[in-house]
Amino acid sequence: MIETFTDLDPLRERVRGWKRDGLRIAFVPTMGNLHAGHFSLVKRARELADRVVASVFVNPTQFGPNEDFARYPRTPQADADGLDAAGCDAMWLPSVETMYPYGVEATVRVQVPGVTSTLEGAHRPGHFDGVATVVSRLFNQVQPDVAVFGRKDYQQLAVVRYMVRDLAFPIEVVGADIVREANGLAMSSRNQYLSAGERAQAAEISRCLAAMAQALRDGQPREAVETQADERLAAAGFVPDYAVVRRPDLTEPAAGETGSMVALIAARLGRTRLIDNLEFTV
Ligand code: PAF
Fold this sequence. Notes:
Elements: E1 3-5, H1 8-20, E2 25-30, H2 36-48, E3 51-56, H3 76-86, E4 90-92, H4 96-99, H5 120-123, H6 127-142, E5 146-150, H7 154-166, E6 172-176, H8 196-202, H9 204-217, H10 222-235, E7 239-246, E8 260-269, E9 272-281
Parallel strand pairs: 1-4, 2-3, 2-5, 3-4, 5-6
Antiparallel strand pairs: 7-8, 8-9
The site of pantoate has 10 residues, from strand 2 and helix 6.
């Protein structure tokens, strides 16, 4: 049966006990409202360690002023049930006061340079400062051996890897594959904001990513591929923030460059902002 912790001392005591017994601890950070995508992270974590801790915390510092912090769905009981069924041992459910004892405004902030300046970082100023700030705290609170993050938040994973290396966290970071609906739509808590019609429409994003990868492989120039993707999304009713091809480190590939690439899209459908990506080789 899963144990839920709302205070730090008992959580630390439990993790210390496991470590004393020589057990390896995996950690899955989440903002709750869990779905099959999150449960696949827990299952991956189970493969990597003896005990799994998942956090459920809607982090105020990573939402912009006009974003959905207030309406972000909070479903702790359903989350606990789902985590239990997925094989999670402990749920870490801190309050905002526990996470930010000096208050959100007076907190120590972690800022990752470079990789945060483009794409999501450019469209959501301050977002990755909030992510790095909360993930560094979560790592200190849980003290896992390994942490599992979804590859759907591709740039977030890059930010976390940078931070872990630079701040020398003794934690292995593992990226887990994107889980998709039958129509190709990447699973996300934000999908529930979509109407049935929008859900069907939203699958266009993954089709567009596949078309971008194919066009690159067919030798089309990157800029043209990006423009076509932008136009295709707009024609399908989206307001795209970006549709781009990047190297795995998110820098821009040179003309004609081959090797590992990632296509990334962020686009709004109605009031909902969706992101997705596809890793491929040219
Ligand atoms: O990916 C998320 O759900 C969040 O950004 C994370 C990593 C839990 C930090 O709040």
